[in-house]
TrEMBL record:
The keyword Nucleus does not apply. Catalyzes the reversible oxidation of 3-phospho-D-glycerate to 3-phosphonooxypyruvate, the first step of the phosphorylated L-serine biosynthesis pathway. Also catalyzes the reversible oxidation of 2-hydroxyglutarate to 2-oxoglutarate. This is D-3-phosphoglycerate dehydrogenase. GO terms for molecular function: (S)-2-hydroxyglutarate dehydrogenase activity; NAD binding; phosphoglycerate dehydrogenase activity. It comes from Idiomarina seosinensis.
Length: 411
């Protein structure tokens, strides 16, 4: 059983923001009365994080921090995680749920930034610019039209036709490119884009292949030596999705053998924790490979919008209990609770929970102004607006109901 806790005043709610989360998030927290903020520019190691999270109520991360079961087990006070990015693969979402921790992200705010970077990379790679640039830095002068091509008329193969892939599709057609895409779901083609039946078909038809899939069990190492050998000789490859989607040694071999004419890679199986750590990769030193430090979504516009979006979701959950657009939790969209006291109860989804909760309420003969319940296969989340002065006592009793994961009250 977790120790009994009371709802805290906002200046006691500790917010830890890692990996240089944008100032817009900090300002939003402060405007909403959250002044107990710790802000760090990079991620922390496992051991550092275990120590740090012990007194933290809300944590904000980007793609680098790994939030494992071990971290959640150590984070006794943690109520919510904000991923200030799209990907949530760095968080063990099931473990978070098991510990009653709600996880939010920003599903759209940096998608345009990624699509624009990839479009620029398409043009740079078609012109052989990465190798020409590297040579010029060493005093070389590779002035030649050999193996330089226009984008117009070339086939761009997009793997994963979601928010980023479909925006890229529109931008690429504006350049006169022909777009093919492959997705595991049926997707509405944008403009004249055409779906490929299989990944192999797409690889064989495309002049440039670009990946825009999430990290999942199915996408892990989806591009290996067999897939690279299916690509056209002298074709180009881009990955700005997740590092674990590509077998990086197989990619290095395909580039060194000349089978691939070039690549642009933004994400890596192993990435430095912060800007002071050395970047190690078998792709280093391959001139026709454009390497960027996971900056696909790193524009001022995207980061500012993400800051506001995710901090807003965290504050709403902390102030109000609203889990709307949470990625691992039943979604409850709640009205404000200006007059009533609000109790939040997170429990294992097992028979009899609501009965047990309501029988406590009926013992106190309380007027329940509102009750909201959402469940999924693992957890149930009940929110109750009640008129009573016995809130703390009731909360303590509800915490003792077997199957309770976490409960708190909002005044
Ligand atoms: N480099 C960077 O800075 C950034 C990287 N990303 C990465 O890009 C990924 C994609 O972002 P969005 O387009 O916003 O996601 P999204 O969820 O809108 O689209 C992903 C698409 O991939 C498809 N998909 C899933 N598994 C697949 C498979 N095995 N084969 C083919 N298609 C598959 C899905 O059906 C979906 O249509 C994110 O999950 C994130 O990992 C996102 C933002 C910035
Ligand atoms: O900007 C970041 O830290 C990560 C961006 C990213 O990969 C994402 O949004 O999934």
């Amino acid at each position: 059983m977790r120790p009994v806790k009371r709802s805290l005043s906002k200046d006691k709610i500790k917010v830890l923001l890692l990996e240089g989360v944008h100032q817009s998030a900090i300002k939003l927290f402060e405007r909403q009365g959250y002044t107990n903020l710790e802000i760090l520019p990079s991620s922390l190691s496992d051991d550092e994080l275990v120590e740090k999270v012990k007194d933290v109520h809300i944590i904000g991360i980007r793609s680098r921090s790994q939030l494992t079961d071990k971290i959640f087990a150590a984070a006794d006070k943690l109520i919510a995680v904000g991923c200030f990015c799209i990907g949530t693969n760095q968080v063990d979402l099931a473990a978070a749920k098991k510990h009653g921790v709600v996880v939010f992200n920003a599903p759209f705010s940096n998608t345009r930034s990624v699509a624009e970077l990839v479009l620029a990379e398409v043009i740079m790679l078609l012109r052989g610019i990465p190798a020409k640039n590297a040579s010029a830095h060493r005093g070389g002068w590779l002035k030649s039209a050999k193996n330089s091509f226009e984008a117009r008329g070339k086939v761009l193969g997009i793997v994963g036709y979601g928010h980023i892939g479909s925006q890229l599709s529109v931008l690429a057609e504006q350049l006169g490119m022909q777009v093919r895409y492959y997705d595991v779901e049926d997707k509405l083609p944008m403009g004249n884009a055409q779906p490929a039946h299989t990944l192999d078909d797409l690889l064989a038809e495309s002049d440039i292949v670009t990946l825009h899939v999430p990290e999942t069990e199915q996408t892990r190492w989806m591009m290996g030596s067999r897939q690279f050998s299916r690509m056209k000789p002298h074709s180009l490859f881009i990955n700005a999705s997740r590092g674990t989607v590509v077998d990086i040694d197989a990619l290095a071999s395909a580039l060194k053998s000349g089978h691939l004419a070039g690549a642009a890679i933004d994400v890596f199986p192993e990435e430095p924790k912060g800007n002071n750590e050395e970047f190690i990769s078998p792709l280093r030193g391959i001139d026709n490979c454009l390497l960027t430090p996971h900056v696909g979504g790193s524009t001022m516009e995207a980061q500012e919008n993400i800051g506001v979006e995710v901090a807003g979701k965290l504050v709403r959950y902390s102030d109000n209990g609203s889990t709307l657009s949470a990625v691992n939790f039943p979604e409850v969209s709640l009205p404000a609770h200006d007059t009533a006291r609000r109790l939040l109860h997170i429990h294992k989804n097992q028979p009899g929970m609501l009965n047990a909760i309501n029988s406590i309420l009926s013992e106190y003969q309380i007027n329940v102004a509102g009750q909201y319940l959402q469940t999924d296969s693992a957890v149930g989340y009940v929110v109750m607006d009640i008129d009573t002065d016995n809130g703390t006592e009731i909360l303590q009793r509800m915490r003792k109901i077997p199957g309770t994961i976490r409960a708190r009250q909002l005044f």
